[in-house]
Write a structure and sequence with these properties.
Helix content is about 45%, strand content about 10%. The longest helix has about 60 residues.
C-alpha cells in the first residue's frame, strides 16, 4: 500500500535523509537492501529512466536506483550526501544499474540535460564509473584526472570509490549547491517507510534546523577571519604591482611606442584597477581568486610590454613564479622538494631558478601565521583562494601536494569553509546548454564502455 504525501513533507524528509528518492510505486529509492516483498515491487515497477533520476537529483545530491540497492546502502548514501551538503557544492552522484534505460554512451550528458543544473555529475553504472562537469564548475581535464585517480577493478566497493571521488573533487570544484536541495519536491513513499521515518522527522527536524543554523554562523565567522588574513596579503600584492607599473615608466606617447605596446599597457592598467575594485568588494575568501587572477594577467602584460620595448622575444604565457607570484611569470620549471615531501616540478622565475641551481633557498613568499612568518604553502587554508587565482586550471593541487596547505586543500572541510564562490553555481542552467559545455572524465561517451576500470 502506498500513499501520496504533501510536497512540503516530502521535501523535509528528503532534506533530512540527505538523498533523493524515486517516485516509484511503493518503494523508496534507497532504504537499504530490499526485503523480498520490496524486491518484488521493484521488479514489477516500471523502468526508472534518466528523467526519474534527474528529478531526484534536483532534490538531493545522491540518488540510488532501487535496482542498485546492493551497490550502496542507505547509511552510506546518507553519509555521502551529508558530506556534499556540508561542502555546499553542486556535486551530483547517481548509482544506477547497467540496463538499457541507462545507455553508457549517453547517460552522463542525458542526466545533466534532464537535471538542468550546472555541476559535476558522477555516475556509478553497474561496476563502472565515470564523471562529467560543466566547464564553469571544473575543467574537463581536471575531471579526467579525478576519474583516473579512483579507477577500481570491476566489482570494487562503490562506497569507497564514490567517497574517494567526492573527497578529491569537492575542494577543487567551483560553484555552490542548488537552492532546490533545500526545498525538495513531490514524491511517493510506502506506508512502512512513512512509519519508519515519521519518528525521525518529528525528533530531528528542530535539531537539524539548529545544527544548520549553527553551522552557517560558524562558517560565516570562519570566512570573515580568513578574509581579514587575505586582505593583508592581497593588499601587499596590489601595492607591489602598482610599484611595478611605476618602475616601468611607460608613456603611450613616448618615442618608439606602437599600438601593440599601448594595448599591453592598457591591459596592465585595467588589471590593476579591476584587482583593486574586486578586493574592495570581496565578501568571502573565494572572492580573492578573481583578484590574484587579475594580478597574474597584469604581470604577464607588463612582461610582454617590457619585451617589446627592449626588442626581446615575447614571453610565452606561463604561470607565475611558484615561490612568490610577485616575481612575475615563470620562465622555466625546476625540481623542488618541500620539507618532508616528494619532489615535483614547479614554475619559477629566472632569479629563483639561479638560486636553486646555486644550492640556495628560493625567495619565498611568506605570510603571517601563529608561529611567525612562514612560506604560504606552510600556512593555513585561508591562503588557498589567494594561491588558486595565481595557479588556475587545476595546477595548484599538483604543485602543493605533500605541503601543509596542499593537505588542507584536499580535505572536505576546506571546500566547506574556504572553497565556496560564485564560479559557476549549482543553479538551473540556461536554455543554451549544449553537450560541448559538459566535459567528461574520459572524454569517451561513445561505445558504451562504462565497465569496471573505465
Amino acid at each position: 500500500m502506498s500513499i501520496r504525501l504533501p510536497s512540503a513533507l516530502v521535501g523535509v524528509l528528503a532534506a533530512l535523509l540527505g538523498f533523493g528518492f524515486a517516485a516509484a510505486p511503493g518503494a523508496l529509492a534507497d532504504p537499504g537492501p530490499p526485503s523480498a516483498a520490496e524486491a518484488r515491487v521493484v521488479a514489477e515497477a516500471p523502468a526508472l529512466g534518466p528523467k526519474t533520476v534527474a528529478e531526484a537529483l534536483r532534490n538531493g545530491p545522491v540518488y540510488v536506483d532501487p535496482r542498485a540497492f546492493d551497490q550502496l546502502s542507505a547509511g552510506d548514501a546518507k553519509a555521502l550526501a551529508d558530506k556534499i551538503r556540508d561542502a555546499d557544492k553542486p556535486l551530483f552522484v547517481a548509482v544506477l544499474p547497467n540496463t538499457p534505460d541507462f545507455p553508457a554512451d549517453s547517460v552522463l550528458a542525458t542526466l545533466r540535460a534532464d537535471t538542468g543544473v550546472a555541476g559535476l555529475y558522477a555516475v556509478r553504472l553497474g561496476d563502472g564509473f565515470n564523471a562529467g562537469a560543466d566547464g564553469t564548475v571544473m575543467p574537463a581535464q581536471q575531471v579526467q584526472s579525478l576519474v583516473t585517480a579512483v579507477k577500481t577493478p570491476a566489482g570494487a566497493d562503490a562506497a569507497a570509490q564514490l567517497n574517494a571521488f567526492a573527497d578529491q573533487a569537492l575542494p577543487q570544484m567551483r560553484g555552490s549547491a542548488p537552492a532546490s536541495w533545500a526545498a525538495a519536491g513531490d514524491g511517493s513513499m510506502n506506508t512502512g517507510a512513512l512509519i519508519a521515518f515519521g519518528a525521525l522527522l518529528a525528533a530531528g527536524a528542530a535539531g537539524t534546523f539548529a545544527v544548520v543554523q549553527r553551522n552557517r554562523r560558524r562558517k560565516a565567522a570562519e570566512e570573515r577571519a580568513a578574509l581579514d588574513k587575505l586582505r593583508v596579503v592581497v593588499d601587499e600584492d596590489i601595492t607591489a604591482y602598482g610599484e611595478e607599473l611605476d618602475r616601468l615608466d611607460f608613456h603611450p606617447a613616448e618615442p618608439g611606442a606602437d599600438d601593440a605596446m599601448r594595448a599591453d599597457y592598457e591591459r596592465a592598467l585595467d588589471a590593476y584597477e579591476r584587482a583593486k575594485s574586486l578586493m574592495g568588494s570581496a565578501e568571502r575568501p573565494s572572492d580573492v581568486r578573481a583578484v590574484t587572477g587579475e594580478l597574474a594577467d597584469g604581470r604577464f602584460s607588463l612582461a610582454v610590454l617590457d619585451a617589446r620595448r627592449t626588442g626581446r622575444e615575447l614571453p610565452e604565457r606561463r604561470p607565475p613564479c611558484f615561490f612568490d607570484p610577485r616575481h612575475g611569470p615563470s620562465v622555466t620549471d625546476v625540481d623542488w622538494m618541500p620539507t618532508g615531501g616528494l619532489s615535483r616540478q614547479v614554475p619559477v622565475c629566472a632569479a629563483d631558478a639561479a638560486r636553486l641551481e646555486d644550492g640556495l633557498d628560493p625567495m619565498a613568499r611568506t605570510v603571517q601565521t601563529e608561529t611567525g612568518r612562514r612560506p604560504y604553502w606552510e600556512a593555513g587554508p585561508a591562503y588557498g583562494p589567494w594561491a588558486g587565482g595565481y595557479f588556475a586550471g587545476g595546477l595548484l593541487p599538483a604543485l602543493l601536494v605533500g605541503t601543509m596547505l596542499g593537505g588542507m586543500l584536499s580535505s572536505p572541510a576546506y571546500a566547506a569553509e574556504y572553497g565556496g564562490g560564485d564560479f559557476g553555481s549549482g543553479d538551473v542552467s540556461g536554455s543554451d546548454f549544449g553537450a560541448s559545455d559538459f566535459g567528461g572524465g574520459g572524454g569517451d561517451f561513445g561505445g558504451g564502455d562504462f565497465g569496471g576500470g573505465f
